[in-house]
Design brief:
CATH topology of chain B: Sufe protein. Chain: A
Number of strands of chain A: 17
Strand order of the largest sheet of chain B: 3-2-1-4
CATH class of chain B: Alpha Beta
Number of domains of chain B: 1
Strand content of chain B: 15-25%
Order of helices and strands of chain B: HHEEEHHHE
CATH architecture of the largest domain in chain A: 3-Layer(aba) Sandwich
Shape of chain B: globular
Structural class of chain A: alpha/beta
Number of helices of chain A: 16
Structural class of chain B: alpha+beta
CATH topology of the largest domain in chain A: Aspartate Aminotransferase, domain 2
Number of domains of chain A: 2
Oligomer: heterodimer
Largest sheet of chain B: 4 strands, mixed
């Protein structure tokens, strides 16, 4: 029975069959931040696409590092430095397994996706892109996968091409084919849209680029938290992740790059730890991954990312994905039933992101009223102004669900949206 | 009355739906655009400023209920004022929404602008309420653009946690 059929029969949520065996209460207990009230009401955290919450095991791992292991890495011969280095490089090996990279040296630690994309822009773009060359992105990209390429194009006299999307928020692949040509030097697209929820057919996008010999960067900020990622199966040339969107602390992140590219690329930042020898005449660079990790990194945060990966691997991720899909469908049905609500992003394949506008009500006012009810959502342009322009809205409201959210929270969210309509509609 | 209905009171809702002095001012000699890059709100304030008097004022743009209603009421309240009086009113308004001025006990010229007092319970909305005022101020100063990022923290010192 579908949700629509159940609603049509007037079944209450208590009568709905349990569709997954996901034990949400047990998972929720792992996230201490969720146990609080806002304005005297239980916190309903539906802003996971902006930043996800951190489980106790990750907090504990970071604390343990700071209490017992903190030291600088890759330098000292002393005991603590060795412990810190081993924990840090241990996290790198966890990342390798998590995304099935061939070698851990292909996993470069960065502070997040923005830094990661900028690393590829400087390292690959400034070396391999020249005048008259073209870079393909898509209409739904986050500003962090637009602006670095625009800066590069401006510097090099190259041209930015954009794969358009339709009004459901799906990329038009025929248009993509028409854009690919012998001048294309890179395709850079997001795995999952933060503003629409669309899951892009990245494997197909990669295969089509590779037929033309063009490398592909995937912005995995929203992909890695929701989907199983296998970089060898995707055959992407770069896959970029932000730790704080996948239950790790801010300041952690990864650039996966095929070694054959990383070795040929320019370094990103210059400084300590990324060199082999330095004289005033010439510097030679360290091998991978150190070549791209100048300076002392966010050691505790990256070790936290390793712990978050352990946590995720301890869950049944397929079941987590099914559960998130169930939440998305439930929320979509309930929200669509409100007359003045218009959903933004109705692709066939979506992650648990639900963006909407209410006729005559600005999203910021929606955000304030929901916050008053303890419900945290994002209101704004979601760092995707071209998406707002496509849908001819100044901004949207966005609820984004994680596997620790509940149907009861969806009910509270929907009731709060109904209240917005009452107060301001 | 809950904090929410105090914020979204009838006067504010009415000004949002039917903003006064909305549209371009052909006779303007001072124009400034104000933006809040965080939420995308943007307003253009047109002034006909002559002999140290705001002879006429209009505004255009898009924003949330709070920013739009505030722009509408701002234009009403500064029209006909000289620069010093307009700036004084801005200062009182700003202190009120920050919760640093009790409009009931401290003498002030706020008048019907007191309907924005409820903003003080929603610190993140202070920028919304003050955007058009900052823009009016920029126009008076002869600047062409202003941005909430240039306003400073727009937060009462008492609200900054340790």
């Amino acid at each position: 029975m579908t949700m629509a059929e159940m609603l049509a029969l007037g079944m209450s949520k208590n009568e709905q069959p349990i569709e997954t065996s996901w034990d949400v209460e047990r998972v929720r207990a792992d996230f201490p931040v969720l146990r609080q009230t806002v304005n005297g009401k239980p916190l309903v955290y539906l802003d996971n696409a902006a930043s996800s919450q951190v489980p106790q095991v990750v907090i504990d791992r970071g604390s343990r590092y700071l209490q017992e292991e903190h030291s600088n890495i890759h330098r000292g011969v002393h005991y603590l430095s060795q412990r810190a280095t081993s924990a840090y490089d241990g996290a790198r090996e966890k990342v390798r397994r998590f995304i099935n990279a061939r070698e851990s040296k292909e996993c470069i630690f960065v502070r997040g996706c923005t830094e990661g994309i900028n690393l590829v822009m400087h390292g690959y773009g400034r070396k391999f892109v020249g005048e008259g060359d073209e870079i393909i992105i898509s209409e739904m990209e986050h500003h962090s996968n637009i602006v670095p390429w625009q800066m590069l194009c401006e510097e090099k006299g190259a041209r930015l091409r954009v794969i358009p999307m339709d009004d459901a928020g799906e990329l038009l692949l025929d248009e993509y084919d028409a854009l690919l040509n012998e001048r294309t030097k890179l395709v850079a697209v997001m795995h999952v849209s933060n503003s629409l929820g669309t899951i892009n057919p990245v494997k197909e996008i990669i295969a089509r680029a590779h037929k033309m010999g063009v490398p592909v960067l995937i912005d995995g900020a929203q992909g890695a938290p929701h989907l199983k990622v296998d970089v060898q199966d995707l055959d992407c040339d770069f896959y970029i992740m932000s730790g704080h969107k996948m239950f790790a602390p801010t300041g952690s992140g990864v650039v996966y790059g095929k070694a054959e590219w990383l070795e040929r690329m320019n370094p990103f930042m210059g400084g300590g730890d990324m060199i082999r020898t330095v004289t005033f005449e010439k510097t030679t660079y360290a091998g991978l991954p150190n070549k791209f990790e100048a300076g002392t990194p966010a050691i505790a945060a990256q070790i936290g990312l390793g712990a978050a990966i352990d946590y995720l691997e301890g869950l049944d991720r397929e079941e987590a994905h099914r559960y998130e899909q169930e939440l998305l469908h439930y929320a979509t049905e309930k929200l669509s039933a409100i007359e003045s609500v218009r959903l933004i992003g109705t692709a066939r394949e979506k992650a648990s992101v639900l963006a909407f506008v209410i006729e005559g009500v600005h999203p910021h006012d929606v955000g304030t009223i929901l916050d008053y009810e303890g419900v945290a959502i994002r209101a704004g342009h979601h760092c995707a102004q071209p998406v707002m322009q496509h849908f001819k809205v100044p901004a949207t409201s966005r609820a984004s669900f994680a596997f620790y959210n509940t149907k009861e929270e969806v009910d509270i969210f929907v009731r709060a949206v109904e209240q917005v309509v009452e107060v301001l509609g | 009355m809950s904090a929410l209905t105090e914020l979204y009171n009838e006067q504010i809702k009415e000004h949002e739906k039917k903003p006064r002095n909305f549209g371009k001012l052909e006779t303007a000699n001072r124009v400034a655009e104000g933006r809040n890059p965080v939420c995308g709100d943007h307003f253009t304030v047109y002034l006909q400023y002559e002999d140290d008097v705001i002879k006429d004022i209009r505004f255009e743009g898009e924003g949330c209920a709070i920013s739009k209603a505030s722009a509408s009421m701002m234009t009403r309240s500064v029209k006909g004022k000289n620069k010093a009086d307009a700036e004084q009113l801005f200062s009182e308004f700003h202190q009120m929404v920050l919760g640093e001025l009790d409009e009931e006990t401290t003498p002030n010229q706020l008048g019907y602008l007191k309907v924005f007092a409820g903003v003080r319970n929603f610190p993140v909305r202070v920028k919304c309420a003050s955007l058009s005022w900052h823009t009016m101020h920029a126009a008076l100063e002869g600047e062409e653009t202003t941005s909430t990022e240039d306003f400073g923290p727009d937060i009462a010192s008492s609200q900054i946690s340790a």
